[in-house]
Amino acid sequence: MSELEKKIKQVEMCGEMVDVVFTEMIRPTTKEELEKMDPDTRMNYKYLPPLNTNTYIAEEGIECMQDIPVAMRDGIIIYADIYRPVGTGPVPLIVSWSFYGKRPFDGQSEWQIMGVPPQTVSNMSKFESADPGYWCRRGYAVANVDPRGIGHSEGDFILFGTQDGKDGYDFIEWAARQTWCNGRVALSGNSCVAMTQWRIASQCPPHLACIAPWEGTSDMYRESLYEGGIPAHAFVSMVLRDAVGHNYVDNMVLNAQKYPFIDSPYWKDKDPDWSAIKIPVYVTACWNHFHLRGSINGFRKIKTSKKWLRTHRNFEWPDAYCNKYLTDLEKFFDRYLKWERNGWELTPKVRIEVQDAFDYDYQTDRPEENFPLKRTKYEKLYLDASDMSMKAEPVASESKTSYEGASEEVCFDYRFEEETELTGFLKLRLWVEAEGHDDMDLFINVQKLSTTGEWLPVTLFGENHPGVWGKMRVSRRKLDEKLSTSYQPVQAHTCSEKLSPGEIVPVDIEIWPTSRIWHKGQQIRVQIAGRYIREGWFEPLQWEADNKGQHIIHTGGKYDSYLQIPVIPPKYQDGDFIYR
Fold first, then answer.
1. Chain-centre distance of CA 163, in angstroms?
2. What angle do CA 275, 281, 282 make, to 5 degrees?
3. DSSP string, 158-186
């Protein structure tokens, strides 16, 4: 791939002028021109349908107003395709806002949605978004929007920042004034299309009635570019190649290298004003996906009293397009976009899917009042390097174990003597030492073993998920005292503290939340390594680890290494009968 052109542009962020690195987007071209290019040149181009403002019948009963220009407050013009039912009066609008192109490719054979059979979703649907083929037939309009700089829209594109939020505000207020709209607007979609919802909603557009961010990262620094403080740029680099337009895009990878600490205005600009979100919100979170932390924390941070969380084990696309939860979402939208008194308020505030093993679940949609669950009892399992186990009581004698940082791993196991449910945040305290280097990258998996010691993974699409996870670059071990709790340590990411030879330090590692049952006699395992152990897991995630020499784990005595677990007691127990 040839190098894309770069430029530095000053952008106001959080009241300061910040130098932001922009790069050319993937350039739009015609199909004919694309076919004539050599492979190296073709990498920098993608097909983009020509601008063509018109209205046509997209499917029977559905009209598309294509390439509709909308002016932003600074005069920039962006474009949207708006689908609406034919022959109706004003209807509510569902908006899909992301840098994925507003008009899908020519056929679904080119963009299969993983886990969803072909033709489940119509060709009118924007990627990871509300499908006009479903919603227009239920009395809604759907707007597929190309934000600033994307496709034929003017300007340069800043990912997940305040500018994107303000533009979303302007589009919503424009749409609410149109004769075909009833004045009530929602945002919907998963992944990237969920992430933009937090930014737009925090700007408080008056006609934004509700949002449904299903699976969306909320902290771009901690959950994407620097998870645990370990650089992870490959996935974002790949995603940036979906931004197609005539102008430039805020290159988050280059800016992450330019601004390696979180206290820069560049990163602060990407953090929504959570306290401003007071409209109804329906959040989902997958226990086995990298959007998990963002979804859970977004739900916890927003201030609205009308918020609902549903957690599940399935991947985002099958969950978003299955009939059961499409119908569920329709009830939510009917309540707040059409004012139907349909009993939505009786929906439990939190619904939990408790996983078991492989593709089996112990419970589905179990009603709860909050997250984390109020009845949680936090217990500690103490690591013992003398026999590579964990114990329910503190270990008196000091011991240590080690592994080669770049290629090996160690495991600590504990057997549950009775059925045990873990739902919520886990935390791992380790006392660590680096032999032959001044830093360590720690990759943690928490797994379930059978009564005979065999791994019992959760499976998605036939693949074994590596396990509940956490990561830590030891030089980034300092915690943010305001954000951290007794069950969720949050790294500060404001400085780097390298290790001295022979220095032993404690680190508190945030383990992302989960919900899973361990039956009597089954074991819990903590796997510690200097690399991400995939075992065939399909997502293209990569971290730029910095490991040399031996990693030493100290346990026992003054080195109180432990795994803190969120034990959920039964709601009621009568002898051997357990009611969860």
1. 21
2. 140
3. -TTSHHHHHHHHHHHHHHHTSTTEEEEEE
**CA dihedral over 53, 55, 57, 63, signed as positive or negative:** positive
Short-list 357, 464, 465, 453, CA closest to 411: 453
pTM: 0.96
Q: Percentages helix, strand, coil for the chain, rounded to the nearest 5?
A: 20, 35, 45
Which pLDDT tens digit goes with each residue over 88-97?
A: 999 999 999 9
Q: Of 369, 368, 452, 443, which Cα lies nearest the Cα of 406?
A: 443
Are β-strands 45-47 and 27-29 bridged in parallel, bridged antiparallel, or unpaired?
A: parallel
C-alpha to C-alpha distances, 461 to 66, 122, 217, 464, 465, nearest whole angstrom: 36, 22, 22, 9, 10
CA 122 vs CA 80, 131, 320, 549: distances in Å:
18, 7, 14, 53
**Location of structure tokens 């031996």:** 550
Backbone angles phi, psi at 550, to 5 degrees: -95, 140
pLDDT reported for residue 540: 75
Look at the block and give the residue holding tokens 């510690």: 528
Q: Any idea where the domains of the chain sit in the sequence?
A: 1-28+219-271, 377-572
Residue with tokens 């046509």: 56
Element spanning 334, H or E: helix 323-337
Angle at which helix 292-301 crosses helix 192-201, to 10 degrees, equals: 20
Structure tokens at 135: 């919603």
Question: What value does the mean pLDDT take over residues 497-520?
Answer: 98
DSSP state of 126: P
Residue 208: HSE in the Cβ half-sphere, 13 Å Cα cutoff: 29
Q: C-alpha distances in angstroms, 552 versus 158, 403, 442, 561?
A: 42, 7, 11, 12
Pick the CATH number of 377-572 from 2.40.50.140, 1.10.246.80, 2.60.120.260, 3.40.228.10: 2.60.120.260
Task: Using the predicted structure, report yes or no on whether residue 2 has a pLDDT greater than 80.
Answer: no
Q: What is the Cα–Cα distance from 192 to 243, expressed in whole angstroms?
A: 12
Q: Confidence band (pLDDT; 50, 70, 90) for 570?
A: very high
* pLDDT tens figures, 25-34: 988 888 888 8
Q: Is 570 left (phi over 0), alpha (psi -120 to 50) or beta?
A: beta
- DSSP per-residue string spanning 210-247: EEEEES----HIIIIITGGG----HHHHHHHTT-BBSS
**CA-based radius of gyration for the chain:** 25
Residue count of the chain: 580
Residues 200, 165: Cα–Cα separation, whole Å: 4
Q: What is the structure's pLDDT at 43? A: 82
